[in-house]
Write a structure and sequence with these properties.
Elements (H helix, E strand, L loop, with lengths): L2 H19 L3 H56 L3 H72 L1 H4 L2 H28 L9 H32 L2 E6 L3 E8 L2 H14 L2 E2 L7 E7 L4 H19 L1 E10 L5 E9 L4 E2 L6 E11 L5 E8 L1
Antiparallel strand pairs: 1-2, 2-9, 3-7, 4-6, 5-6, 8-9
Helix pairs in contact: 1-2, 2-3, 5-6, 7-8
Length: 369
């Protein structure tokens, strides 16, 4: 196996292990950087070891050559002394030493080639480590910003099921925009040719108002977009005699499954503001979207029964095999505020998970409590 291939397989094995347990990309970035540095140190140790072996082989070749030359001189002396038998033995030993020298030369050449490959791999890996050291901080900063945006989106989840609230907020935003436009129009009237001359301070103040209006307009546009997005997803619970009906809706299948999990948790516990104690990732495959829904619900109930853990946040991502990957951030049940009966199992009766004619997904599942 080549040195480069060995390095690649070693790094791939370590990365597969960390990917199985890392849910936070910031932790993954730090861990990957540490593993790259560890791998670089291992390559450096291997390079030093191979170089030491090569130098040892060189010294051994020199020693054997000296011994072979000495035996040749002794063979000549034995012949001169009339002892051909001793000369024959000396020459036999010299031939054996020369054979060892030849074998050591091959070994020395192989060690030199390995040393050169390791040195090249070390240079490449060192450059990768330095490059990744710079990139990982950017990755961590980007993920932190993304998580902040996700947290803001989750804060609005509670109002997503109430479209009226979204309409009220949108109307308020439109009224604010209309007021700003009126003030801007008045400012434009002041700036038309022939208007009274303004002092430098007055001009700067009104220019600042224009900049503020532009910033507010942008913020209002973002608010409208966010409210529209939040209104497109949500969940609700419908109590039955001895069970509970959870209904969820979202633009995509995966978001709809996540909303169903949030609806399940909200039916019996309050977990907002709690810091997760652990994270888990589960790849789920099923024959149909309805089977996926019941499998996701059963996974959450299993964590509750087996580990006494409840999700504080949830994310569902599509998998290549048409399944999903379920990400859960968990806290102990003891840290949650229990407000209802804990779920026991999902029911296959009246199970629903499908898009409507407009492409919006909706889910429905009945849960025994």
């Amino acid at each position: 196996m080549s040195t480069a291939r060995r390095i690649a397989e070693l790094y791939e094995a370590k990365m597969n292990a960390v990917l199985d347990r890392a849910a936070d990309p910031r932790e993954l970035a730090d861990y990957s950087y540490a593993q790259l540095r560890e791998l670089l140190a291992e390559v450096q140790r291997d390079t030093v070891q191979v170089a030491a072996s090569r130098k040892h082989a060189e010294r051994r070749v020199s020693e054997l050559r000296h011994a072979a030359d000495r035996l040749g001189e002794q063979a000549e002396q034995a012949v001169a002394a009339g002892r051909p038998d001793l000369a024959r033995q000396a020459l036999s030993r010299r031939a054996a030493l020369r054979a060892q020298v030849s074998g050591l030369r091959d070994q020395q050449n192989a060690l030199l080639a390995a040393e050169r490959k390791l040195s090249a791999a070390e240079r490449q890996l060192r450059a990768k480590v330095e490059e990744f050291g710079v990139r990982k901080e950017t990755i961590k900063a980007a993920y932190t910003a993304a998580r902040a945006q996700a947290s803001i989106a989750e804060a609005f989840t509670g109002i997503s099921g109430d479209v009226t609230n979204a309409d009220v907020a949108a109307r308020w935003a439109e009224d604010e925009a209309a007021g700003l436009e009126a003030r801007a129009s008045a400012l434009d009237d002041l700036l038309v040719p022939g208007a009274a001359a303004l002092s430098d301070e007055q001009l700067q103040a009104q220019l600042d108002q224009i900049s503020t209006r532009a910033e507010v307009d942008e913020e209002l546009a973002r608010l409208r977009g966010r409210l529209a997005s939040e209104a497109a997803r949500g969940h609700r619970t419908v109590p039955h005699t001895a069970d509970l009906r959870i209904e969820a809706w979202a633009p995509t299948r995966e978001e709809c499954l996540a909303e169903a999990v949030r609806g399940l948790v909200d039916s019996f516990a309050v977990v907002a503001g709690r810091r997760p104690h652990g994270r888990t990732k589960r790849h789920i495959r099923a024959r149909s979207d309805e089977d996926l829904l019941i499998a996701v619900i059963d996974e959450v109930i299993y964590r509750l029964d087996a580990d006494a853990m409840v999700p504080v946040s949830v994310a569902v991502r599509p998998a290549r095999d048409d399944g999903v990957v379920l990400f859960l951030a968990l806290i102990p049940v003891s840290e949650a505020e229990i407000i209802g009966a804990a779920p026991k199992a999902g029911s296959l009766h009246d199970l629903r998970c499908a898009p409507d004619a407009a492409g919006r997904w909706s889910c429905g599942v009945t849960v025994d409590v």
